[in-house]
Amino acid sequence: MEDLDTLVLRTACGWQADGLPVVLVTVARTWGSSPRPPGSLMAINADGATVGSVSGGCIEDDLIERIRSGGIHAACPALAPTVQRYGITADEAHRFGLPCGGTIELVLEPVSPHSRLDELLAACEQRRSVERILDLATGGVELRDGRRDGVPHLDERRLTTYLGPQFRIIVIGAGDLSRFLCQIALGLGFEVIVCDPRIERHAAWSLPGVEISREMPDDLILRLKPDARTAVVALTHDPKLDDLALIDALRSDAFYVAAIGSRRNTSLRRERLGTHFGLTEAELASLHGPAGLYIGSKTPAEIALSIMAELVAVKNGVALPAQARVDTGKVGQSTPLETGCGI
């Protein structure tokens, strides 16, 4: 499953190739509470079809109605990018379903060959981060290699946005827990890769949208070179499969590296990785283990939810309190999972 930005770009490129006029809408700035953050994308074609979103729905309805009633010219009278603000007054905020005090500023851009959406889409597919500079007077676009994330910047002359590759998760081990974890990750828009060299594990394991690798996990990690939009989660309980992959992942740019296991096994793993493989204290400190948040998980589905909740929190830069971690949350608790996953 594609992330939403990639889906918007791919759909807009398809409409453009079919000869349909298209407007690309970008959330440039917000004030107060807003349903969608700056940088969010939406595309609308001349028939009123949409992909993506910029609010809870009412702003989209207004834009669609304007385009349906007057064509692309109604949204962009000079067929050049225009800036549209919603929610300036309390009445408008109420009308367009914005939270109390919320204001949203959009850039509406008629899509043309100058928009270079095909190049932008290709960059995302190649896991390249791109800075896109839109000239508000001409609609011309400049693309540069840039940082993976950034807050859009809008001034009188240009809109600068940042687009990075799809978030990706590499799951080591094909099992029931992996299946539930992958299903959640797919729903969240992650690219998902499952790695397990054990042939017997593949016979009954398949999930649409998930790439399966039979490589040794450490070989896969070295080949893919996890970037800052990649997470690595080890789920096999087998040090022969997990440890080398974890070492390479912890020395990569991966934003989240985790492994399941009881508190005792997690402690032994850290000792093993430090003593025998020379990982530093800083590298060991970045390993999330036992993986997940403490929510009293008992089933594979609940454990998968726990792990993905922690992963998303790290992705979004949320500082979690110590008591939210499995190792801390389990203190004083009695659960049969202590000899298993430790979630």
Structure write-up:
With 343 residues, the chain is an alpha/beta fold. It has two domains: 4-163, no CATH class; 168-339, Rossmann fold (3-Layer(aba) Sandwich), CATH 3.40.50.720. It has twelve helices and 15 strands. The strands form three sheets. It has a six-stranded parallel β-sheet, with helices on both faces. A five-stranded antiparallel β-sheet has the order 3-2-1-5-4. A hairpin with a 4-residue loop joins β2 and β3. α6 packs across α11 (300-315). The protein is elongated, with a radius of gyration of 23 Å. The two termini are 27 Å apart. The model is unreliable at 334-343 (pLDDT under 50).
Brief overview, please?
With 343 residues, the chain is α/β, with parallel strands linked by helices. The protein is built from 12 helices and 15 strands. Helix 1 runs antiparallel to helix 5.
Layout of helices and strands:
Layout: H1 4-17, E1 22-31, E2 41-45, E3 50-52, H2 58-70, H3 72-75, E4 82-86, H4 90-95, E5 103-110, H5 117-125, E6 130-135, E7 141-145, E8 153-154, E9 158-163, E10 168-172, H6 176-187, E11 191-195, E12 210-213, H7 217-224, E13 230-234, H8 239-250, E14 256-259, H9 263-277, H10 281-285, E15 287-288, H11 300-315, H12 326-329
Parallel strand pairs: 10-11, 10-13, 11-12, 13-14, 14-15
Antiparallel strand pairs: 1-2, 1-5, 2-3, 4-5, 6-7, 6-9, 8-9
